[in-house]
């Protein structure tokens, strides 16, 4: 069968691939520890599920308005107003099937062939492929580990051309956990004020998962004059352990929201009606379970950083948020083990899977081959076992000087 040009330039998601590999081994009875997961290991809080059940029995099971039910849009507007101090009208909100779908709709609505999208690297795996699917070109700005994986304003300025249409910011970040402080956003905003044609996507999906009471802000909060060209992507997946429910929301300029809604109307229509009601409960209900989850993630981060510090040759930036660490394991590259040469993060991920049945995501998928991504959305017991395995596997290799 002939496949389209479009699909041929897209890679399958590396995270999903690694999880499929882990699943296949498990089905053979192997105990795999997966550091590959990209979702909280908590269950969706009970009241949220109850709301979905009630919606189901009330018969709220039919098509809803494509852009989302009024009650959910209102809950989103209230939440964003409380957390960001920014106000949006209902026609500036689009509810979609997860944050991922928001990004997809937005890119389809605003990008054309020849347009450039600036993506600070390391980046979330899906950004470049979604940009390519819209016919545009990703332009990567390397962000050094020594700078906490954050983009310098001068590097942003250098990357902007007459073709730049979008900049993607993601804070806290997947895969590094790096978070931009308000003054760092201010410096980026100063650059962006010189380039009217550049719109900004603020992917805030991890904004509630921040440690040490770090102050959170996005670029439109820091520079209100950028609000008109900033698109906020957020959703319930990570904050409320609702990854499977598929509810995300996009906020921004009403003309673009309308256009993104048109793309949605011709592809998926509305997101699941009962999931929308569940999201109303998530946003309107008690926020304590989310606070508890963040506390647990913070304890795990401490444990994970402690284990990593004790492994020779590894360097690792301490994540400010989300539930990932992105250690640099390149000191172990260039070694042969059992007749195979480890040359990069994919070889390392394969080696760890084969040698000790530990699933990690190669940093290459996030634009940084020196690193691997480890998720700490696992119980402490599993983390302990996983790090024992990691140590065991790495002991068989000798690190080179970094
Ligand atoms: C940075 C980032 N943005 C967006 C998403 C999409 O989240 P959702 O599950 O709401 O589609 C993810 C999910 O892993 C993510 O890591």
UniProtKB/TrEMBL annotation:
<dbReference type="InterPro" id="IPR050596">
    <property type="entry name" value="AspAT/PAT-like"/>
</dbReference>
<keyword id="KW-0032">Aminotransferase</keyword>
<dbReference type="InterPro" id="IPR004838">
    <property type="entry name" value="NHTrfase_class1_PyrdxlP-BS"/>
</dbReference>
<keyword id="KW-0663">Pyridoxal phosphate</keyword>
<protein>
    <recommendedName>
        <fullName>Aminotransferase</fullName>
        <ecNumber>2.6.1.-</ecNumber>
    </recommendedName>
</protein>
<dbReference type="InterPro" id="IPR004839">
    <property type="entry name" value="Aminotransferase_I/II_large"/>
</dbReference>
<keyword id="KW-0808">Transferase</keyword>
<comment type="similarity">
    <text>Belongs to the class-I pyridoxal-phosphate-dependent aminotransferase family.</text>
</comment>
<dbReference type="GO" id="GO:0030170">
    <property type="term" value="F:pyridoxal phosphate binding"/>
</dbReference>
<dbReference type="GO" id="GO:0008483">
    <property type="term" value="F:transaminase activity"/>
</dbReference>
<dbReference type="GO" id="GO:0006520">
    <property type="term" value="P:amino acid metabolic process"/>
</dbReference>
<dbReference type="InterPro" id="IPR015421">
    <property type="entry name" value="PyrdxlP-dep_Trfase_major"/>
</dbReference>
<dbReference type="InterPro" id="IPR015422">
    <property type="entry name" value="PyrdxlP-dep_Trfase_small"/>
</dbReference>
<feature type="domain" description="Aminotransferase class I/classII large">
    <location>
        <begin position="32"/>
        <end position="390"/>
    </location>
</feature>
<dbReference type="InterPro" id="IPR015424">
    <property type="entry name" value="PyrdxlP-dep_Trfase"/>
</dbReference>
<dbReference type="Pfam" id="PF00155">
    <property type="entry name" value="Aminotran_1_2"/>
</dbReference>
């Amino acid at each position: 069968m002939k496949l389209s040009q479009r699909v041929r330039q897209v890679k399958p998601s590396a995270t999903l691939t690694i999880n499929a590999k882990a699943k296949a081994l498990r089905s053979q009875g192997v105990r795999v520890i997966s550091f590959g997961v990209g979702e909280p290991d908590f269950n969706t809080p009970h009241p949220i599920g109850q709301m979905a059940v009630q919606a189901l029995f009330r018969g709220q099971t039919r098509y809803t308005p494509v852009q989302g039910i009024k009650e959910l849009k209102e809950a989103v507007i209230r939440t964003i107003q409380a957390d960001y101090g920014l106000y949006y009208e209902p026609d500036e909100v689009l509810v979609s099937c997860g944050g991922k779908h928001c990004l997809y709709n937005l890119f389809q609505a605003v990008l054309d062939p020849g347009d450039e999208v600036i993506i600070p690297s390391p980046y979330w795996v899906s950004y470049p492929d979604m940009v390519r699917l819209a016919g545009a070109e990703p332009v990567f700005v390397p962000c050094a580990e020594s700078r906490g994986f954050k983009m310098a304003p001068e590097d942003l300025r250098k990357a902007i051309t007459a073709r730049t249409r979008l900049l993607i910011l993601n804070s806290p970040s997947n895969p590094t956990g790096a978070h931009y402080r308000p003054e760092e956003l201010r410096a980026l905003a100063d650059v962006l004020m010189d380039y009217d044609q550049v719109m900004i996507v603020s992917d805030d999906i991890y904004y509630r998962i921040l440690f040490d009471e770090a102050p959170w802000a996005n670029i439109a909060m820091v520079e209100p004059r950028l609000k008109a060209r900033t698109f906020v992507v957020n959703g319930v997946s990570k904050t409320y352990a609702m990854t499977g429910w598929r509810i995300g929301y996009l906020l921004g300029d009403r003309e673009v929201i309308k256009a993104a809604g048109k793309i949605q109307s011709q592809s998926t229509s509305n997101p699941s009606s009962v999931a929308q009601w569940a999201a109303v409960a998530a946003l309107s209900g008690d926020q304590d379970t989310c606070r508890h989850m963040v506390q647990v993630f913070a304890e795990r981060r401490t444990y994970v950083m402690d284990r990593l510090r004790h492994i020779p040759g590894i360097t690792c930036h301490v994540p400010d948020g989300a539930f990932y660490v992105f250690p640099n394991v390149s000191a172990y590259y260039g070694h042969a083990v059992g007749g195979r040469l480890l040359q990069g993060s994919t070889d390392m991920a394969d080696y760890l899977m084969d040698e000790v049945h530990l699933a990690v995501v190669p940093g290459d998928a996030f634009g940084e081959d020196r690193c691997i991504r480890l998720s700490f959305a696992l119980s402490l017991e599993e983390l302990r076992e996983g790090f024992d395995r990691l140590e065991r596997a790495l002991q068989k290799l000798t690190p080179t000087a970094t």
